[in-house]
Design goal:
By secondary structure, the protein is an alpha+beta fold. It has 10 helices and 23 strands. The strands form 4 sheets. It has a 10-stranded mixed sheet, sandwiched between helices. Helix 1 packs across helix 9 and helix 2 packs across helix 3 (about 125-135). The N and C termini lie far apart (about 60 Å).
Length: about 550
């Protein structure tokens, strides 16, 4: 029996929008909603969004965003990218976005209501379309504000980092990029080999997504910048917007750091990191009550718009409208978890320093253990450590307690003593472990969690990588960044395991491709702590007084 699949149809065009079909250089027309202020006499700057998720869907709530921005003097254009929903052309992510972005901007500046200035904004894939348009170099593009994304987007190679593959990548391309529609399905991920579960999806939809050729079973590069990488083009003002609990945080931080280090770009780079996940849920609201769930409640959307959009308006007013001085914009703005909004001239903020915590007999200690010890755990491909958070894009919407995992024998944990005073984390988190495996290679997954006095454990940051087979050897892990206060009575806990399924493709314990492995083999991982092989966690901290 084919897998049940639901197809999402396009939502109606809002009454406040005028849909236009904008022609690209090859004649393909892209469906574009135009929102204009109710009363305007002078030409307007434009705020452009190009997305693949149905420009009129409840999910993107662009009609509400447009109302907020038109009230502040912007024309707003929201476009279905090529091959999606009402737009014409082939359905293929990335490859057309540079030229289509350029051509859309070129069309905008020729409209009678346009003053010839354009800014682009938006989340995730519609952050990637901004970088693609920037790479094409249209002179009317004055600024971009990519949010929860990275310049290299969510291409296939994004989903495979350090030898570990996010299974969601394959599901994403099937759901959103098989054709012009969006599909919902629940595949049987217990099937082995796992590629059979993917073929089950294709059979249910009735077509195989073309992007799987670049992802399943081998990841390949997909060209996205035919005119060259945007970082190598003309410098552009960029508001890098990210979330501490977003699974795309690291690309955002990487973009900011690289461009802030380039003299020609540095003065035009701004960083804003909020305590949000990919879908915009905020730490201050957890556990999220039904009335604040913007996935389903319209008043919850209206509540989040000022926090979501005010930094963007402030940025666009300077660099798109040309009003006011850039000196009024904070170079770095972040929400410090359990403290509030803060600003600084740099990230990490001035005064930040590295603090080491050494792994020691189940604990995390400030001093190096004198005696070397070995800690081992078994990875069994037939009994994988489950991903309690199955939707990694909505970490704060669900805010799951992960402490049940810490009772498993294939998960090892190291925990600090409860804090007696606030510990403020502000910057990168890294780990240096001496670890090995008796298999040909292995995955190692790290999570740093906040353990509350009642024993509940919630993830702050994470990192993972493939390690080679052989005896324990030094390996470094990047667990991204955070801005967060560990409150008195709470503790930090480091979780170490060798699977996290279905978020990540499991290691079969053999040399087989994980997509193609029908069977697996148990492997034992060994971690050395103490002595000359002391494994440690490095956190970046600031004094509490600097945040007051």
């Amino acid at each position: 029996m084919p897998l049940p699949v639901h197809r999402a149809e396009p939502a109606p065009v809002p009454d406040s929008a005028t849909q236009l079909m904008v022609a690209m250089r090859d004649g393909v027309r892209l469906a574009t909603d135009l929102y204009l202020p109710a009363d305007h006499d002078d030409p307007l700057p434009a705020a452009l969004v190009r997305l693949p998720y149905d420009k009129d869907s409840r999910y993107v709530f662009m009609d509400r965003i447009a109302a907020y921005l038109t009230a502040r003097g912007y024309a707003v254009l929201v476009q279905d990218v090529r091959g999606k929903f009402r737009s014409e052309g082939e359905t293929m992510p990335f490859v057309h976005e540079a030229d289509d972005g350029y051509d859309t901007i070129d069309w905008i500046v020729r409209q009678e209501w346009s003053d010839g200035r354009v800014g682009m904004f938006g989340d995730s894939y519609y952050g990637a379309t901004q970088w693609a348009a920037a790479s094409a170099g249209h002179p009317a593009l004055k600024a971009i504000a990519p949010r929860v994304t990275g310049a290299d987007g969510i291409r296939p190679d994004y989903w495979e980092q350090d030898g570990v593959t996010q299974l969601f990548g394959a599901l994403y391309y099937a759901a959103y990029w098989t054709d012009r529609w969006v599909y919902e399905f629940e595949p049987d991920l217990t099937r082995r080999p796992l590629i059979e579960a993917m073929e089950e999806i294709a059979e249910g939809i009735g077509a195989r997504p073309a992007m799987w050729d670049a992802f399943v079973p081998e990841v390949k590069q997909v060209p996205a910048f035919p005119h060259g990488h945007p970082f190598d083009g003309s410098p552009l003002p960029v508001l890098h917007q990210a979330g501490w609990f977003d699974n795309c945080l690291q690309p955002s931080i990487n973009d900011w750091a690289e461009l802030a280090a380039r003299p020609a770009w540095a003065e035009l780079q701004y960083l804003h990191v909020d305590s949000i996940d990919h879908e915009g849920y905020h730490l201050d609201d957890v556990p999220v009550p039904p009335e604040l769930d913007h996935w389903t409640v319209d008043t919850a959307v209206d509540r989040l718009l000022p926090r979501h959009l005010d930094p963007l308006v402030e940025f666009f007013d300077v660099f798109v409208k040309g009003e006011g001085s850039a000196r009024r914009l904070p170079r770095v703005r972040w929400h410090h978890g359990h403290v509030g909004d803060r600003t600084a001239p740099t990230w990490p903020p001035p005064g930040a320093r590295t603090q080491r915590l050494y792994l020691d007999s189940g604990g995390l200690r400030p001093d190096t253990p004198a005696v070397e010890q070995a800690v081992s755990w078994v990875h069994d491909p037939s009994d994988l450590v489950p991903s309690l958070l199955e939707d990694s894009f909505s970490a704060l919407r669900y805010h799951l307690d992960e402490s049940p995992l810490h009772r498993r024998t294939d998960v090892v944990v190291f925990t600090t003593d409860p804090a007696t005073e606030p510990l403020d984390l502000a910057g990168p988190v890294r780990a240096a472990l001496t670890v090995g495996t008796d298999g040909p290679s292995a995955h190692v997954y790290l999570k740093l969690l906040d353990v509350s006095p009642d024993g509940a454990a919630h993830v702050l940051v994470r990192g993972q990588r493939l390690i080679p087979g052989g005896p324990p050897a030094p390996v470094t892990f990047d667990l991204t960044h955070t801005g967060y206060r560990l409150r008195p009575g709470h503790a930090l806990r480091l979780h170490i395991a060798s699977s996290d399924f279905p978020t990540y493709l499991p290691h079969p314990g053999t040399e087989e491709n994980p997509w193609l492995a029908a069977d697996g083999k148990a492997t034992t991982q060994t971690l050395l702590i103490g002595g000359e092989h002391a494994s440690h966690l490095s956190v970046t901290v600031v004094d509490a007084a600097s945040l007051s």
